[in-house]
Amino acid sequence: MKNILFLEDDEVLSESLIELLESEHFSIVHVKNGEEVLEKTFEEHFDIYLFDVNVPKINGFELLKQLRESGDSTPTIFLTALSDIDSLSKGFDVGADDYIKKPFDFDELVIRLNAIVKKQYRIDTIDDFTFNIDKNELYKEKRFISLSPYELSLTQLFFKNINKTVSKEILYDELSLSDGSLRVHIAKLRKIGLPIVTIKGVGYRLGNS
What we know:
Radius of gyration: 21 Å
CATH architecture of the largest domain: 3-Layer(aba) Sandwich
Helix content: 40-55%
CATH class of the largest domain: Alpha Beta
CATH topology of the largest domain: Rossmann fold
Strand content: 15-25%
Largest sheet: 5 strands, parallel
Number of strands: 12
Strand order of the largest sheet: 2-1-3-4-5
């Protein structure tokens, strides 16, 4: 289920849109002003941002500009009554992936959201863990897990080979690690909960089988 951060201060529109989006199996976190967005993005990971522009405290354009400057590349759709070409241009200039003018057809919004989902980064999951292969980021229950460079490289190799045994030789060659160092890094990954199984005399496997 994709997690959307929805910025909209119109209560009536928000209630109806949230109900419709949840019926399409999106998970919605609703906020009413730009400052709340910054708080929420600090607390958790979102798959898509759906922003109105004319909202209290920080408008949608300035908000996305700040997020992009901070390195946040989360796909973003503006959903706004601003229909002039200058606003459209500004929306894309600050980093929007799409721009939908109000009033809009709900089916069109779902089509555009699903198009973004399809273009999104490749994601692999196991248990409570999600690994974004293209961004090289690990999450546990949507909480970002900070890893050392070696641990990150190991994690990427394991997630690219879920339920497949990765030989020690491949790990040594790919990461330039000694056997002792490899064991230390494997132990650290197990400590955060990754189900890494030792295949005696061969290597390691990420998986429960």
